[in-house]
Design brief:
Shape: rod-shaped
Order of helices and strands: HEEEEHEHHEEEEHHHHHHH
Strand content: 5-15%
Largest sheet: 7 strands, mixed
Strand order of the largest sheet: 4-3-5-9-8-7-6
Helix content: 40-55%
Number of strands: 9
């Protein structure tokens, strides 16, 4: 709760170090250390589905002033803002302190929260990390976060992580003015659809990695024998990456179902129908990820079983060779006792006879063990 008190303190007009509203000039003071880049990636006003060109970069306060005067809505994109950078925007748009805390801190679970005049939605973005070969330390998926504040006349995105840029999505929406004219809820749907489409692409790539590991585990061994499987650490690492993927997908299904089924005054009824399609795609991805987890469990168990069988096979071979070596060891042990009255001790052909009997016994034992599959 101390974090909430701090946020309530920084959103006061007198304590905004980076985005301070000047009551005399009715504009934002953007004076700041040049070495510190602004968290605002883009800020634009949209009216009737088109971006309003102002001829200069707009501050959040200026954009909201245009919206309240002429209509439309403002879309502000931020990347990893600090408390101070987000304080002025939170105050300007009346964002709830709890949602502001989550947006600044990041590492949130995908969710949908409704406040008085806004919706707060958290998405986990997933990026597939390309690799030549899966190892015990390979990073398969990389996660990021996109937090969305949806209001009647504003839409704010807060992005965390190096992946999940929304620049291309913004340009694509600007090319579809009919959809963009539906307001902030159209942007929320576009982001949800964009995130889920990313899940589908990553799921297909992870499927290829799992197929590769499965093929290695169950592929026949050249020359016969028992497969020793693959390094179990590789399978476990892939399972951990799938678990990270699962944490992003599974909690998001319920929020998408709520957006598609429950009427909300901030969601345009025409846009709500599109959320149903997003929820269906997400449900398919969730089933796929769940099957990944179960399949990797089976592959890991099979790999461990193969390793155990291979160890048993080694022990059988060692035991078989020990049985063969036991024959000459016994014979040489007997004739090494230095007794005077030993069988054939003074016979001319005694030595070759003993060697012949020893070799014959070893060959016979070898054939028996070979026929029984011990060698």
């Amino acid at each position: 709760m101390s974090m909430i008190r701090d946020l309530r303190a920084v959103v006061r007009p007198s304590s905004r170090p980076s985005l301070r509203k000047d009551t005399a000039t009715a504009s934002y003071d953007t004076t700041r250390d040049p070495a510190t880049p602004s968290a605002v990636v883009d800020c634009a006003v949209y009216r009737d589905g088109a971006r309003v060109e102002s001829g200069k970069p707009l501050s959040p306060h200026e954009a909201m002033r245009l919206v309240r005067r002429d209509g439309g809505f403002v879309w502000i994109g931020l990347h990893e803002p600090t408390e101070a950078e987000f304080a002025g925007i939170a105050s300007e748009f009346g964002l709830h302190p709890l949602a502001v805390e989550d947006a600044v801190q990041a590492h949130q679970r995908p969710k949908l929260e409704r406040y008085d005049d806004s919706l707060f939605t958290v998405f986990k973005t997933i990026h597939y990390v390309e690799h030549d070969r899966l190892t015990a330390n390979s990073e398969v998926v990389e996660t990021g976060e996109v937090m969305c504040f949806t209001g009647r006349d504003f839409f704010i995105t807060v992005r965390h992580g190096g992946q999940g840029s929304l620049r291309a999505l913004r340009h694509r929406l600007q090319d579809d003015p009919e959809l963009l004219a539906k307001g902030p809820s159209a942007v929320l749907h576009a982001i949800a659809d964009h995130v889920v489409d990313g899940y589908i692409a990553v799921a297909d790539a992870v499927q290829d990695d799992i197929d590769e590991v499965e093929t290695e585990v169950f592929s026949p061994v050249r020359g016969g024998g028992v497969s020793r499987g693959v390094d179990s650490a590789r399978i476990y690492q892939l399972k951990r990456e799938v678990l990270e993927f699962k944490r992003a997908v599974a909690p998001l299904l319920r929020p998408m179902q709520l957006l598609s089924e429950r009427p909300m005054r901030l969601i345009d009824p025409d846009i709500q129908k599109y959320f149903r399609d997003v929820a269906d795609h997400l449900a398919r991805v969730q089933e796929q990820v769940m099957s990944f987890d179960e399949l990797l469990n089976s592959i890991l168990q099979a790999n461990l079983a193969q390793a155990s069988v291979a160890q048993n096979e080694d022990m059988r071979k060692i035991t078989a060779w020990a049985a063969i070596i036991a024959v000459p060891t016994m014979v040489t042990g007997v004739y090494g006792m230095n007794f005077d009255h030993m069988p054939e001790l003074h016979w001319r052909y005694g030595y070759p006879l003993v060697l012949g009997v020893t070799v014959a016994a070893c060959v016979g034992i070898h054939r028996v063990l070979k026929r029984n599959g011990w060698l």
